[in-house]
């Protein structure tokens, strides 16, 4: 009681011993020691720091960007931390927007359209013990009214729902998660400010939690997933004390909003080390039961398994990793379409076997998978549209005649649909000749395309031939032929008429079928 009273007089946050992170000690590391290459810096991030400094505020490049710079890597994103409040930051930039409720931050925007860049600016936060915070029984959605106007709130499990109390840099460093993420770089003086030995841990490639790991996981269970991501991406080893509570605290992830957990899964698999991330999830006992989409893709051991379906996903991940490492763009919708294809295919097959036509059956299967594995998450609409278009193209690739082939290659998502088809072929799920035909058709001129369509038409005739003539031969003895017409013509006539109808590019039936496929993928 006396200690609490003294702490209160001195303005120190109340809390149980060991329940809060140590403040650490400020150490300024010079350029000769940290070795950061200024050429790896983002000029817009430096400009933000300069603007804040010129206005009389402290400002640093912070977090993962500094960690990556220390490792000689060019960071993908640059964040800035300052002692200016969000309102003060917003007032210094022409295009700046305050966002977030849990953490209020400022997005400073440069450029427009696809070429725009966002520098995220956060205000130094105070280190507060959770037992001094206001508590609500629900979560972000169920307790919106209780959270309104409050700055520091936790739920019943100790998860931080609001953290908007400003403080000095030394406390801001202590409330960050891992030592390698609690680093501040001043590009003007070229010094790194280190409070918790983050530079040493980065050199040793060790991931170590600041403070008591279990308490920190309870504050934000997503730190568990971040540990997996950093270990896989950077090749770091999770320090034993940091690893110890992971399995027991994994159940806390059930309280995290589905949209946030979904975003973390996307980050986990798009670092350029997706297969390594799956391995790290298995290592930490998290391969199953955390992400519904992974549960649909992995076996009981948390592995991809064997066979064409597993090989298809493996090839998709390898392709994603390669694109990231080459600095090329990757699409979350394409990756998710690959991850969920096995389940879509299984449901599609079952629905067709129940008598549903091909295209409606596929649409029904897609709806079932979305409801079971993705649910109601932020951004689902755009993702769902792109994924549906990729999947709905697959049966259309089977038809290589009529005007539909020309329409298909002009679709905005054709390339994604074809890449998906190619992966299926490479995995052995379908005949590689089909993917080769579409690649040749897409790249060919008018004469080449006409020849390819004729070639496909002849191949279809041969493949249908035995099936068309077999049944009439067996039933011929029981069916009298007309005196003036040979039996062979009876067999060939209807089949030929059917083939002619399929070749008519502008028939009502073909147009309706094409419209159905297009509509389902829109």
TrEMBL record:
- Protein's UniProt keywords contain Cell wall biogenesis/degradation: no
The cross-references to Pfam families, in alphabetical order and at most eight, read: PolyA_pol (PF01743), PolyA_pol_arg_C (PF12626), PolyA_pol_RNAbd (PF12627)
Which residues belong to any copy of the Poly A polymerase head domain? 59-208
Annotated tRNA nucleotidyltransferase/poly(A) polymerase RNA and SrmB- binding domain ranges read 235-297
Catalytic residues of the enzyme: 77, 79, 177
E.C. number, please?
A: 2.7.7.19
Tell me, what is one Gene Ontology molecular-function annotation carried by this entry?
Answer: poly(A) RNA polymerase activity
Residue ranges for the region (Disordered) are 457-522
Catalyzed chemical reaction(s):
RNA(n) + ATP = RNA(n)-3'-adenine ribonucleotide + diphosphate
Q: Where is the Polymerase A arginine-rich C-terminal domain?
A: 355-474
Q: Where is the composition biased (Low complexity)?
A: 507-522
Basic residues compositional bias, start-end: 496-506
What keywords are annotated for this sequence in UniProt?
A: ATP-binding, mRNA processing, Nucleotide-binding, Nucleotidyltransferase, RNA-binding, Transcription, Transferase
Can you tell which superkingdom this protein's organism belongs to? Bacteria
Name the enzyme group at the top EC level. transferase
Q: Which NCBIfam families match?
A: pcnB
Q: Which family does it belong to?
A: Belongs to the tRNA nucleotidyltransferase/poly(A) polymerase family.
Cited PANTHER family: POLYNUCLEOTIDE ADENYLYLTRANSFERASE FAMILY PROTEIN (PTHR43051)
Q: What does this protein do?
A: Adds poly(A) tail to the 3' end of many RNAs, which usually targets these RNAs for decay. Plays a significant role in the global control of gene expression, through influencing the rate of transcript degradation, and in the general RNA quality control.
The protein's name is Poly(A) polymerase I
């Amino acid at each position: 009681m006396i200690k609490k009273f003294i702490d209160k007089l001195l303005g120190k946050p109340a809390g149980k011993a060991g329940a809060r992170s140590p403040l650490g000690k400020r150490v300024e590391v010079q350029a000769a020691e940290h070795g950061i290459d200024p050429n790896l810096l983002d000029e817009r991030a430096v400009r933000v720091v300069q603007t804040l400094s010129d206005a009389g505020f402290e400002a640093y490049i912070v977090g993962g960007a500094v960690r990556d710079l220390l490792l000689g890597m060019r960071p993908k994103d640059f964040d800035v931390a300052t002692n200016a409040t969000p309102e003060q930051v917003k007032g210094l930039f022409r295009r700046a927007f305050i966002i977030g409720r849990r953490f209020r931050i400022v997005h400073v925007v440069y450029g427009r359209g696809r070429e725009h860049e966002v520098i995220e600016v956060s205000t130094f936060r105070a280190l507060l013990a959770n037992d001094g915070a206001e508590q609500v029984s629900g979560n972000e959605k169920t307790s919106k009214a209780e959270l309104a106007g409050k700055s520091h709130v936790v739920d019943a499990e100790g998860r931080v729902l609001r953290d908007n109390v400003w403080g000095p840099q030394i406390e801001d460093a202590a409330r960050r998660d891992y030592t390698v993420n609690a680093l501040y770089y001043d590009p003007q003086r070229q010094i790194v400010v280190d409070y918790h030995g983050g530079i040493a841990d980065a050199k040793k490639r060790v991931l170590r939690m600041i403070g008591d790991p279990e308490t920190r996981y309870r504050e934000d269970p997503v730190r568990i997933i971040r540990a997996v991501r950093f270990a896989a991406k950077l090749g770091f080893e999770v320090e034993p004390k940091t690893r110890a509570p992971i399995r027991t605290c994994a159940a806390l992830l059930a309280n995290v909003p589905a949209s946030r957990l979904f975003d973390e899964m996307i980050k986990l698999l798009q670092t350029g080390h997706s297969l390594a991330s799956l391995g790290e999830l298995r290592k930490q006992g998290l391969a199953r039961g955390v992400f519904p989409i992974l549960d649909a893709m992995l076996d009981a051991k948390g592995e991809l398994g064997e066979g064409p379906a597993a090989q298809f996903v493996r090839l998709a991940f390898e392709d994603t990793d390669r694109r990231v490492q080459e600095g090329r763009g990757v699409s979350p919708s394409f990756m998710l379409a690959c991850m969920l294809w096995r389940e879509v295919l299984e449901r599609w097959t079952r629905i067709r076997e129940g008598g549903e036509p091909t295209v409606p059956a596929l649409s029904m299967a897609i709806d079932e998978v979305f409801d079971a594995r993705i649910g109601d998450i932020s951004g689902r609409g755009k993702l769902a549209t792109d994924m549906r278009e990729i999947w709905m193209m697959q049966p259309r690739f089977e038809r290589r005649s009529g005007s539909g082939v020309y329409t298909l290659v002009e679709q905005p998502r054709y390339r994604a649909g074809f890449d998906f088809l190619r992966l299926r072929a490479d995995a052995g799920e379908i005949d590689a000749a089909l993917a080769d035909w579409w690649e040749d058709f897409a790249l060919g001129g008018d004469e080449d395309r006409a020849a390819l369509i004729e070639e496909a038409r002849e191949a279809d005739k041969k493949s249908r031939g035995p099936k068309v003539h077999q049944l009439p031969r067996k039933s011929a003895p029981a069916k009298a032929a007309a005196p003036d017409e040979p039996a062979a013509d009876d067999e060939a006539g209807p089949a030929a008429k059917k083939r002619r109808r399929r070749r008519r590019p502008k028939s009502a039936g073909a147009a309706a079928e094409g419209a159905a496929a297009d509509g389902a993928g829109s």
